[in-house]
Amino acid sequence: MSRLFSAYVIVDWSAAAKPATGADSVWIGVVKRDVRFRLTFEAFNPPTRAEAEKKLAALLDDFKKRSERALVGFDFPLGFPRGFPAALNLAGEQPWRATWDQLDKMVKDKADNTNNRFGVGSEINRRMTGGPFPFWGCPPKDALTTLQPKRTREHGPDDLPEFRHADLAAKGASSIWKLYYNGSVGGQAILGIPAVRRMKVARGEAMRVWPFETGFKSLTEADLAGVDVVACEVYPSLYKAQPAPGEVKDLAQVRVTAEHFARLDEAGKLGAAFGPGKTAAADIVADAEREEGWILGVEA
């Protein structure tokens, strides 16, 4: 069984509003093979998202030069709960792409990490419901009529779902509507999706975003012919990371997650992990492929 990838890159994103390193900042963990084909690990801790994007581009360019395919996992959702593009009246046959294009238009993320993620959440709330829903969570100083520090109400049967199918399957994953406080992923997704989109635009068909562009199915070497990069969503909390002495938790998590997928690939089992599992319902697979995305390694 041949390996699908030569390198495994795990990105722990951050929505920080100023440059930061160490805990709760951007970490990039890379597992790759040395000249003797032994797996080696290196990590990078760029202080800003702009520098992280540059570093990722440089890493991927280097792998391409060596004809090495890379798996790149991001620790934030690449899609929103089903119905999001329709609720915003976004046009296009690919709902996930319409969402990406819309966020790209709205997000302002400067080189020093200052960003408008709360403004974006507030504006989407205004367009969808006219009130502080479904996005919530911000420092009190950033509160607006259409974005409040605390959640103002529960999701009802006529609202967009609070969770994607993948969040429920992963058990314990945060809702993308939560923009602030511990465990929130909404801010990371709002700022991260435009960054992944820029990578995709730069690489075109040589980069595929799973499961939107690959299908929610097991992947083989034939499926990835001509592909240099597969981007996906990962959930590092699934893998019990024990920090080594001097390691911050984020560093341990990107290391352990990258090693996990490298080992699966080594054993010839990574291709199957891109599939939904034998008992997955057809509507869940369809929603994942069209707009919600999925978490690699979680069974539907």
Q: Which secondary-structure class do the elements indicate?
A: alpha/beta
The number of distinct helices, counting runs of at least 4 residues, comes to: 9
Unreliable stretches: none
Query: How does the major sheet shape up?
Result: 6 strands, mixed
Assign a percent range to the helix content.
25-40%
Note the beta-strand portion: 5-15%
Strand order, sheet with most strands: 3-2-1-4-6-5
How many β strands by DSSP? 6
The H-and-E topology, N to C, reads as EEEHEHHHHHEEHHH
Radius of gyration: 19 Å
Estimate the mean pLDDT confidence: 96
Shape designation: globular
Distance between the ends: 25 Å
Write a concise synopsis of the structure shown.
With 300 residues, this protein is an alpha/beta fold. It is built from 9 helices and 6 strands. It has a 6-stranded mixed β-sheet, with helices on both faces.
Explain how this protein is built.
This protein has 300 residues and is α/β, with parallel strands linked by helices. The protein has a domain at 7-77 and 187-292. The chain has helices at 49-65, 84-87, 95-106, 117-128, 165-170, 186-203, 249-266, 270-273, 282-292; strands at residues 7-12, 27-33, 39-44, 70-74, 207-209, 229-233. The chain has a six-stranded mixed beta sheet, sandwiched between helices. The model has no long low-confidence stretch (mean pLDDT 96).
Layout of secondary structure:
Blueprint: E1 7-12, E2 27-33, E3 39-44, H1 49-65, E4 70-74, H2 84-87, H3 95-106, H4 117-128, H5 165-170, H6 186-203, E5 207-209, E6 229-233, H7 249-266, H8 270-273, H9 282-292
Helix pairs in contact: 3-6, 3-9
